[in-house]
Amino acid sequence: SGINAEYGEVFARYHKYLRLHDFIxxxxxxxxxxxxxxxxxxxxxxxxxxxxxxxxxQTESAVIKAVTVxxxxxxxxxxxxxxxxxxxxxxxxxxxxxxxYKFRGFMLDTSRHYLSVPVLKKLITAASWSKLxxxxxxIVDDPSFPYCSTSFPDLCTKGAYxxxxxxxxxxxxxxxxxxxxxxxxxxxxxxxxxxxxxxxKALPGFLSYCPGKGxxxxxxGPIDPTNENVYPVLKQxxxxxxxxxxxxxxxxxxxxxxYKCWRSNQNITDWMSAHNISGNYEALExxxxxxxxxxxxxxxxxxxxxxxxYLHHLxxxxxxxxxAWLPNWKxxxxxxxxEGYRCILSACWYINRISYGEDWRKFYKCDPxxxxxxxxxxxxxLVLGGTICMWGEYVDNTNALHRTWPRASAPAExxxxxxxxxxxxxxxxxxxxxxxxxxxxGYPAEPTLSRSFCQxxxxxxx
Length: 462
Description:
Elements: H1 8-19, H2 23-26, E1 33-38, E2 53-57, E3 61-66, H3 69-82, E4 93-97, E5 103-109, H4 117-129, E6 134-138, H5 154-159, H6 169-180, E7 185-189, E8 207-209, E9 220-223, H7 230-244, E10 249-251, H8 260-264, H9 266-274, H10 281-298, E11 302-306, H11 308-311, E12 321-324, H12 329-338, E13 342-345, H13 360-365, H14 377-382, E14 383-390, H15 400-404, H16 409-416, H17 424-440
Helix pairs in contact: 1-3, 4-6, 7-10
């Protein structure tokens, strides 16, 4: 009741899940109705959107109450997870549930290896099953520029691997809408001034020239901050990104800016001398970032940056979100939150780094707010959550699905669940049950335990 008809799709999706393999028909209970009540029919999905819900299951009826449709969506997922598909039982329970962290993200890298739209949609769907709410789309990087910009179409035609390895504007909008209908916000990342080699073919003079000292063995390094022609391009491109992606946030990158290229470029050296910053490459980076942030601020977008921007003491605004990814993340979060910055964590959740065995356990043990046991309550609250990262060096359409899930479910529970829920032995049956549930829904989730089986195994379509 009280819901826009468009969201009938949400309920149809869970109706389908519940009827897979005759789950509902086989239940050894007399449940007759599932009622969903939503207070606010607003369709807006923001970081601050209320995702709380209550779920009451009794002998003949179940009731989900939520403020928003997205809270109801989380409640429907929990209801579906209560069904024991081995003995077909449904417990009588009363659940009051809400996320511990408001920023619960997963990142996919589509530059190093291309991921098709159908694969991206499957990964997004799986993320919604673990109640994640942010898709950090690392859409471009050094190897390729698959995003087809309307402002600079050559970035795509010259920077992508091929015409078949691109995301058209329709593709991007399809992903944004699909994610939205799964309760997930798409946050794009255009990482600059480093990680921009793929931009160079379309934008002559845009990158710093440094023969033999450039990115990934090339003659070109980061964007040339001394080139005035750079900034109108950035303004037009980020204006487009702000228009295409409705998210309040854009990720600006800023990591791994290697100064050796700038250092070897005589034109850059002369410019730095003329501006009284000779030899101070952090000052040069600060000059670039200050101008970029001015552009982004004019677009009324909040932004996220990798931690180097903070570590290099660049001139950032108080609203900046610091994204910690390096091993010394506890120190970064301690210092940044003491200065009033909001932070998110990825350092211990690089799930592209695979190891033999049940490596989800180490992901489960990491908690973003464990950076300092004596941190103040205010500092703790400035840690908004984290992002589970799947970098694309060795991931493409052939293995992205099973390599990501259900391993990502471990940190996903850490981001949603209460802080006292930490015991590995209690997580084992939950993550294995979730894996079996994913198989039953047609998702090729890899094993979580060395010995196990699922009632419904995955079947490849011939």
